[in-house]
């Protein structure tokens, strides 16, 4: 069976608004990822893209973004309304099935709603949950509270994550801040921004001729939990545990772990649920807390983990991505150098 | 660029959802101030009820009625309610596990102060007087009175539940966005406000696009070389619109056409005017009819429509009003 590797990656985060549209944001990122891979666009027969039109409100606007990806001759193209990590998974399946020697995965995000939190409410059950109008931070807080009540975590633990991801902000200072949705404070919640990421995948014979050191995908898997929040034990993540077991992470030592945690407490729950043998470094990229381009954030974690291998600073790295409220859907991508 | 165009933009997500199965049963129960769950093959009771076990796919054993008393399993505080929230004053959002249920229901707990809230507290359902079969028929959970098992609702009784027909869950979400066309389209739209139509020639494949793109859709080369296009072109396809719609500016029937300007390689969509629909044909030569100078703005609407070429000199002016 063939192997598939990440052979190029690039990304850009944008604070505020610089007037560019989706294509103008994505095109230079795609260009850099392709250049980093050294792979000719003609080898790419499979494209996977991800974004959400709910975020910028332009119905059908996603088509404009496709100026940024190789358009001619026509290719197999699949667009997901999900985090780009799930587009990467689909492209990996297609390459393993022999559909193409290489694939390009991209995700882009320009949240432009006055109330991004209301947009995220659209993903909730429309019959018995959405009519209550819960905010995303409130839903996440139910999970944070369940974690505190379990006795395994404390608000000080949450603040320690915030401190680590937000440039060493003093933990005592953080704990004095008011709640936005108890037990969460505003800095426990990610800072939403714009951004784009692109990843080039290639099968073994192409990857071995690529520009740099390939990050071989040794395993990739995802699992989803029930959508009813009250039917889940929110203080645990059985889906993540299942994926981790499938990839045998408990038997492995990991140099770099990049986790997609839009809330501080989720980073703790993810790391605990992975039950990995030994983890040298968590989120050296900074993680999702200081910069969260929704729909890009998970792909960015995989790209960052892969880049650690491609740069030679890690031999084994794991990228995590999530979708849905309270870590409902989790994906892990295990990558190794030769 | 900081002076790129931006405009307010509103999208309404207005849906009426019909309900069936377990959802219909649950909402019908709420209209009678009753809480219902489903019992799985493993004996576990799920609230709100489901039709199939989400983990095994097994059909459920049946539906069971539960009392209005439960325990808070997790909660958070909503200190600043927004319009449309379930309570106008601060409240707790909570997962409440009803007695006899194995899962928790998301709802609110109405207490005056966050300090009253704690995980494990006993709460009871408090119903609205007017109920229509929706989750908000249950006004809130409130702390139970001491020794009072069912102060706010009827006790469970094995009365048959009649399903309400024509139940609908209505959502009226309106989201406000700011729309940003991007750098290339900003230049194009600004040119329209000066009575100019801008095109772009791809430096890679020489294709001419109207409007210009930042990156060539075919070969990804860029940036494009900007060109001043004339306002005459050819109809490459068209359709006759007979159905009125929101925001319509033309009398019915009218013609929407693809117009390829002279020198361009791709057409754009615009309106045709001053020509009966039956006289429109692919290949028709057309020219732009601009709005009066005082109405020019960075929008396609600066061109009122295209009409058949009637003069041999330059561009058409605002004659067709």
Please describe the topology of this protein.
The complex is a heterodimer of chains A (338) and B (321).
Chain A: E1 4-14, H1 22-37, E2 44-50, H2 53-56, H3 62-65, E3 76-80, H4 84-96, E4 102-109, H5 116-120, H6 136-149, H7 155-165, H8 171-176, E5 179-181, E6 184-185, E7 194-203, H9 204-207, E8 215-224, H10 238-246, E9 253-258, H11 264-274, E10 278-282, H12 297-310, E11 316-323, E12 329-336
Parallel strand pairs in A: 2-3, 2-4, 9-10, 9-11
Antiparallel strand pairs in A: 1-7, 1-8, 4-7, 5-6, 8-12, 11-12
Helix pairs in contact in A: 4-12, 7-11
Chain B: E1 7-18, H1 21-31, E2 35-39, E3 45-46, E4 62-66, E5 69-78, E6 91-98, E7 105-109, E8 122-127, E9 138-143, E10 168-179, H2 183-192, E11 197-201, E12 208-209, E13 225-229, E14 232-241, E15 254-261, E16 268-272, E17 285-290, E18 303-308
Antiparallel strand pairs in B: 1-10, 2-3, 2-4, 5-6, 5-8, 6-7, 8-9, 11-12, 11-13, 14-15, 14-17, 15-16, 17-18
């Amino acid at each position: 069976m063939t192997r598939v590797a990440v052979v190029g990656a690039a990304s850009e985060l944008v604070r505020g608004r610089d007037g560019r549209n989706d294509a103008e944001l994505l095109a230079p990122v795609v260009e850099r990822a392709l250049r980093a891979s050294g792979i000719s666009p003609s080898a790419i027969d499979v494209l996977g893209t991800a974004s959400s039109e709910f975020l910028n409100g332009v119905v059908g606007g996603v088509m404009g973004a496709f100026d940024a990806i190789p358009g001619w001759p026509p290719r197999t193209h699949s667009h997901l309304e999900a985090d780009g990590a799930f587009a990467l998974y689909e492209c990996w399946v297609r390459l393993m099935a022999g559909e193409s020697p290489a694939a390009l995965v991209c995700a882009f995000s320009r949240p432009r709603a006055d109330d991004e939190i209301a947009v995220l409410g659209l993903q909730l059950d429309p019959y018995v949950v959405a009519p209550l109008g819960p905010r995303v931070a409130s839903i996440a807080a139910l999970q944070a509270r369940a974690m505190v009540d379990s006795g395994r975590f404390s608000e000080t633990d949450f603040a320690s994550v915030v401190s680590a991801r937000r440039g060493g902000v003093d933990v005592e200072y953080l704990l004095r801040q008011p709640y936005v949705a108890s037990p969460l404070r505003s800095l426990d919640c990610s800072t939403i921004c714009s951004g784009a990421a692109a990843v080039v995948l290639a099968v073994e014979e192409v990857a071995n001729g690529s520009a740099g050191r390939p990050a071989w995908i040794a395993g990739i898997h995802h699992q989803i939990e029930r959508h009813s929040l009250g039917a889940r034990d929110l203080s645990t993540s059985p889906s993540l545990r299942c994926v981790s077991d499938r990839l045998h992470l408990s038997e492995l030592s990991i140099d770099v772990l990049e986790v997609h945690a839009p809330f501080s407490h989720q980073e703790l729950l993810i790391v605990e649920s992975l039950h990995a043998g030994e983890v040298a470094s968590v989120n050296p990229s900074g993680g999702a807390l200081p910069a969260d381009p929704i729909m890009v954030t998970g792909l960015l974690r995989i790209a960052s983990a892969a880049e650690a291998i491609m740069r030679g600073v890690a031999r084994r790295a794991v990228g995590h991505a999530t979708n849905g409220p309270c870590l409902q859907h989790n994906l892990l991508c295990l990558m190794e150098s030769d | 660029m900081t002076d790129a165009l931006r405009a307010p933009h509103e999208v309404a997500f207005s849906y009426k959802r019909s309900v069936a199965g377990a959802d219909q049963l649950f909402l019908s129960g709420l209209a009678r101030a009753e809480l219902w769950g489903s019992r799985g093959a493993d004996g576990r009771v799920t609230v709100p009820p489901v039709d199939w076990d989400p983990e095994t796919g097994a059909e459920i054993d049946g539906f069971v009625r539960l009392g209005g008393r439960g325990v808070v399993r997790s909660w958070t505080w909503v200190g600043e309610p927004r319009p449309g929230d379930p309570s106008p004053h601060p409240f707790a959002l909570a997962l409440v596990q009803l007695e006899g249920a194995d899962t928790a229901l998301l709802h609110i707990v109405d207490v005056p102060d966050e300090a009253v809230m704690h995980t494990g507290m006993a709460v009871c359902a408090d119903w609205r007087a007017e109920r229509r079969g929706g989750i908000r028929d249950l006004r809130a959970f409130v702390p139970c009175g001491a020794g009072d098992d069912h102060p706010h609702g009827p006790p469970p009784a094995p009365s048959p539940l009649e399903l309400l027909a024509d139940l609908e869950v209505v959502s009226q979400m309106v989201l406000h966005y700011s729309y940003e066309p991007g750098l290339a389209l900003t230049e194009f739209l600004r040119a329209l406000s000066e009575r100019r139509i801008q095109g772009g020639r791809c430096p890679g494949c020489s294709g001419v696009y109207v409007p210009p793109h930042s990156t060539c859709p075919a070969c990804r080369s860029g940036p494009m070389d900007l060109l001043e296009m004339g306002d005459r072109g050819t109809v490459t396809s068209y359709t006759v619109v007979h159905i009125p719609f929101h925001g319509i500016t033309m009398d019915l029937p009218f013609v929407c056409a693809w117009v390829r300007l002279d020198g361009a390689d791709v057409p754009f969509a615009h309106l045709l005017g001053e020509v009966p629909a039956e006289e429109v044909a692919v290949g028709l030569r057309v020219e732009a009819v601009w709005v009066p100078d005082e109405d020019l703005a960075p929008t396609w609407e600066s061109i009122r429509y295209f009409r058949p070429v009637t003069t041999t000199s330059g561009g058409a002016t605002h004659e067709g009003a």
